[in-house]
Amino acid sequence: MSVRDGAATVATNAGGGGGGGGWSNDPDDRMYLLQIYPRLAAQSSTCCNLRVQKNATTASVITDAAAALGLDPGRLYVLAEVKESGGEEWILEAGDLPVQRVLLWPRKAQEQHPQSFGFYFLLQERNHDGSIHYVHLPPLSKEQEVQRLAARGFLPPPQDDFADLCNLPVLSEDSILNNLRTRFYKKKIYTYAGSILVAINPFKFLPIYNPKYVKMYEKHQLGKLEPHIFAIADVAYYAMLRKRVNQCIVISGESGSGKTQSTNFLIHCLTALSQKGYASGVERTILGAGPVLEAFGNAKTAHNNNSSRFGKFIQVNYLESGVVRG
Q: Across 58-195, where does the E strand assignment appear?
């Protein structure tokens, strides 16, 4: 046994077989590195590096690790496999094979697995009644843990924004509003919350409503492309044709949030789908009725100079072929 840089290193043939402390051409005799960290009442940062064969059992590895670390052989110890990425800490049975566990880890952690990689073994003390004597380490917040794992390459890098609020890692009022704000500054005014579309009025025209966008979202499952009101119209239209059941789209929001404009975009997309991209007189008739109604029922509010003061119900009827009837 030799001690270098605070790490105890021992070469062993635990589990039987030859091979010494080096590498062998025979795959069955290959030596694997196990890095074991003691988590005992007497805290120590010493890491025990063992080279063992593939069939080395947990019992033999514990014996060799205890000897290498100079621990009291009269006490009982257990070996725990830790996978920080999943929040797992698994106590290995005496007959388990630690090397087999290592071979299931990410390739990055197989050859060398220091604690900083998030995949490692802990040596813990077992009480005489069989229970585990845990020594708690300083806890990290969930955000800090995610940052550590992402920095080590075990988790994908954090996203700037989420197209669906259901995918937010932390769901709170602040995280929802921050996500919507981030997307708004990127001129992404639409965001999903499952099958619900959240729209933020940009108070200016965006070039995302021309016929090519109708074609782009046609026959696409909700969520496959960036959120858009045309996606809602497309899903409703093809669900009606497929299921032969009436579909309903509800638009709600505060004064000035863009309900009237959203209605116009929906009708534009629905009639374009039924006419296969060609403008129709039906669309002009439906959209032309809006200003007439609003001339009698609009009023000025604190947020909107021309706010609709009445509810609107628009029903578009289709033939079985999917063409607008009226």
A: 76-83, 88-91, 119-126, 132-133, 190-193
Task: Please tell me whether residue 256 adopts helix, strand or coil conformation.
Answer: coil
Helix H or strand E segment including 62: helix 58-69
Q: How far, in Å, CA of 285 to CA of 261, rounded? A: 16
Whether the CB-CB separation of 287 and 315 falls below 8 Å is answered with no
- Residue 212 annotated as binding site: no
Note the pLDDT tens digit of each residue in 267-283.
889 888 887 645 557 77
Q: State how far the Cα of 33 lies from the Cα of 21, in Å rounded to an integer.
A: 10
Q: What is the pLDDT of residue 173?
A: 93
Sign of CA dihedral 85, 86, 89, 93: negative
Residue 258 annotated as binding?
yes
The Cα–Cα gap between 52 and 278 comes to 73
Q: Is 255 annotated in some ligand binding site?
A: yes
Q: Is 281 annotated as a binding residue?
A: no
User: Mean pLDDT over residues 202-209, rounded?
Assistant: 90
